[in-house]
Amino acid sequence: MDVSWPRAAATGVGSLPGDRPLEAATLVAGELPDLVHLPELPARGPGADIIGRAAAMLVDLHVDLTPSGWRLAARGGRDERRARDYLAEDLDSIEVAALGCTGVLKVQCAGPWTLAAMLETPRGHRALGDAGARRDVLASLAEGAATHVAEVARRVPGATVVLQLDEPALRAVADGRLPTASGFGAVAAVPVPELVAALREVVDAAGAAVGVHCCASDPPLDVVRAARPAFVSVDLSTLDPRRHYDDLGQCVDDGAVLLCGIVPSAGSAADLPQPSRADLAPVLGLWRDLALPADRLATQVVVTPTCGLAGASPDYARAALRHAREIARRLADEAGAA
């Protein structure tokens, strides 16, 4: 779906420190007015984590929490209710904080492959390794994510809602590196066509522009690109662009926006002075090496922290979002002067 991306934009990856949803949503709306994102607060505990949060969106599937993690269940219990309550609190908070928003509003959830990799079947095996459970989880998430997007759009009617699928496990799924429950084997690698098809199912069902975030140092960008996302989010501090020039360049040529993680996700606020040219170098270097037109940089690059900010201090999180916004403005100035 077409999105009018703001010029010189910055946004967050998703998570923030703390356990106060309205405070977090207000921070994001204030610091990142052009591209607000729905904050995630995993410090609240189980149910606010990436898997519990996505599980709360599932349709016609239920989960409970075991010592080994989230598990599919015959019926929902207090753990599922808590996860749904956290999500409802977050929606209430963004509705208040983003009142009057007319720009892009990004929401996030675990992607289909990370969710299938981390959810267990009732017998304690990864849903990823059970063909039936895997299909059920993927279809349920596609429907649930679409419902979530529609609810955010209803609550913030002036905003253009986009969906980010967080896929930190995608490389391990593609390579067959996830251990089985016994620890003596690994779940078989999922063929690339199936990986792409599941991502496309969510993309097609969402009713909004959908992107994929993978902060691994070697993300399977060939899989991501084949799913034709509206945006791709990567960590430029660990990514070796030379290994991914073709895929990154093709994504941009296809019209995808690059969310470039360049602000460290933890540290001291004092470590983030006014942006210098060194802060711009990773993006400018990538753009130059891909031989892309300078005038497209300001609208096809969004600056982000390298990953979520849940492990940072509140002061650093605020400073990191502000720093990302200032870098984005400097990049736009550079593009205009080129």
| Count of DSSP strands | 9
Number of helices: 12
Give the terminus-to-terminus CA distance: 30 Å
The largest β sheet comes out as: 7 strands, parallel
Task: Using the CA coordinates, give the radius of gyration.
Answer: 19 Å
Taken in chain order, the helices and strands follow as: HEHEEHEHHEHHEHEHEHHEH
Share of residues in helices: 40-55%
| Low-pLDDT stretches | none
Class from helix and strand fractions? alpha/beta
Shape assignment: globular
Mean pLDDT: 93
Q: What share of the residues does DSSP label as strand, in percent?
A: 5-15%
Largest beta sheet: what is the strand line-up? 1-4-5-6-7-8-9
Would you mind describing this structure in some detail?
- The protein has helices at residues 21-31, 50-55, 78-97, 112-118, 131-155, 170-175, 192-205, 221-226, 245-253, 277-289, 297-300, 314-337; strands spanning 35-37, 62-66, 69-73, 104-110, 160-166, 209-213, 231-235, 257-263, 301-305.
- The strands form two sheets. A seven-stranded parallel sheet has the order 1-4-5-6-7-8-9.
- The protein has twelve helices and nine strands.
- Strand 6, helix 8 and strand 7 form a beta-alpha-beta unit.
- The mean pLDDT is 93.
- The longest helix is centred in the middle third of the chain and has 25 residues, at 131-155.
- With 338 residues, it is of the alpha/beta class.
- Helix 1 runs parallel beside helix 3 and helix 4 (112-118) crosses helix 5.
